[in-house]
Amino acid sequence: MIGEVSSKYRTSLPNWLAGLNHWEDAMVDELNRLLEDLHDLQTYWSTESKMREDESGKMYADGMSHGFKYAAIALHTVLRKYVAFELCESERADDDGNFPC
């Protein structure tokens, strides 16, 4: 699931960043790299939980896997809201003076 979230976000991100300045672009790029790192860590610990022999080791690795998964989901949500806010701010009002957000 986390891989789907991350890749879905990466594919749609360039369209969302049209109005952001260079610093914001760099920040969002760094946060996307963090999303990828969280995905890699989640994959590692998921595999580790399947390979461990002892029950406590399996539970520990499974907990680590879930922790990285939920951290990535939370980060993805924050990024989506941030980018949506930036789009709303850049479009401010339509022709009738109504605010779209």
Taking the alpha carbons of the first and last residues, their distance comes to: 29 Å
What share of residues are in beta strands? under 5%
| Oligomeric state as shown | single chain
- Strands, count: 0
Structural class: mainly alpha
Describe the global form: elongated
Residue-averaged pLDDT = 77
Give the domain tally.
Answer: 1
Written as H for each helix and E for each strand, in order along the chain, the element string is HHH
Largest sheet: none
Give an overview in words.
With 101 residues, the chain is mainly alpha-helical. It has one domain. The protein has three helices and no strands. Helix 1 runs antiparallel to helix 2, helix 1 packs parallel to helix 3 and helix 2 packs antiparallel against helix 3. The longest helix has 37 residues. The N terminus is likely disordered.
